[in-house]
Amino acid sequence: MRKRATTIAVTSIPTEEHWQAARDVLRELNLTEVAQPRGLVSGHRNSLPIVAAGSSGRNFLLKYYVPLPAETILPAGARGDDFSRREAGFYRLLDSVDPARREFPAPRTIAVGPGDPPRWLLLEWLPFAAGPLAEVISQDHVAELLQRLHQVPTERLLGRRDFPVEHWDPIGYLDRIRAMYDAVLFVLGETRWRHVQLFFSEAVRWTDGRKHVLVHGDFSESNIVVNDDGRAFMVDFECVGIGNRDHDFAWFWIHSQRHPEWKRQMVARWFGGSYGGDRIRSEWGIRSAIVYVAIRRLRWGYLTHGEDDPRLSSNLALLDAAIEGGGAFFPA
């Protein structure tokens, strides 16, 4: 009989104390909180994003990091302060190589709070175009942002003391999955676990040697801003790292709620004119990222719901499909 996990708190919910601390920062910066746009919330619930205005009427975004409770469930191997340290380190990097953001589509840094990691960032506010995300964000926007990510020289990310770089590649996925062993073995079983190990042995064989690229790490519609001029920007760099060039595409594709035909066209566009070995390596890159996503979801479901995880069957099906690959997984 499987062991049942105890349901515990999984996210940090900002308290009135956190709001007060963030507003104290606004006062120190001589900023005034304004009406907050609908839907402005941290995806990881580990920060408070607040729009505020300066004396000139210009708007800014304060991102105030909220300490995570000890019982918060984090990704395997992660520490609570990694997210703020990584994001602040990445903005410092951008400030050193592209302060005006002429090359990289991200908000400009106005100020970084004290401490290590810093408690807050003050960023340029990027007003977003009105309308549903499905109408505002196009495939052209997605393709352009992914291209911009891949053009950043990754050697600038390595060796920085203030930047705990993530490694998003099949070797990194397997390291994370092995750290999940105690939780996921109960839902995977020994046979599936062996299939996962064999899958990654083959994935590493196909993808090893590919040039690493900059990886956003949480590339989704909620982290893309398109302004009224139709320009697209990326925000929230808490999971940024280097590795698999297909990771961000796979992450966007699997988390997208768009129509299946839209997603099919997106896959066809991503593969483009790649054939032979290049096409096979890209398929392995996508499949390995999604195997990782499926197992990460299974761990989360087990730690929060035990055997009653409502998404257990769908995530097992996703895992099996990604391991199997083929035409059913990549529609023509």
Please explain how this structure is put together.
By secondary structure, the chain is of the alpha+beta class. The protein has one domain: Aminoglycoside phosphotransferase (APH), C-terminal lobe (Aminoglycoside 3'-phosphotransferase, Chain: A, domain 2, Alpha-Beta Complex), CATH 3.90.1200. Helix content is about 45%, strand content about 10%. The chain has ten helices and ten strands. It has helices at about 15-30, 80-95, 135, 140-150, 170-180, 180-205, 245-255, 260-270, 275-305, 310-325, and strands at about 30-35, 45-55, 60-65, 110, 120-125, 165-170, 215, 225, 230-235, 240-245. The strands form three sheets. A five-stranded antiparallel sheet has the order 1-2-3-5-4, with helices on both faces. A three-stranded mixed sheet has the order 6-10-7. The protein has a two-stranded antiparallel sheet with strand order 8-9. The protein is globular, with a radius of gyration of 20 Å. The protein starts with 15 loop residues before the first helix and ends in an 8-residue tail after the last helix. The relative contact order is 0.12. Mean pLDDT is about 90; it is low at about 1-10.
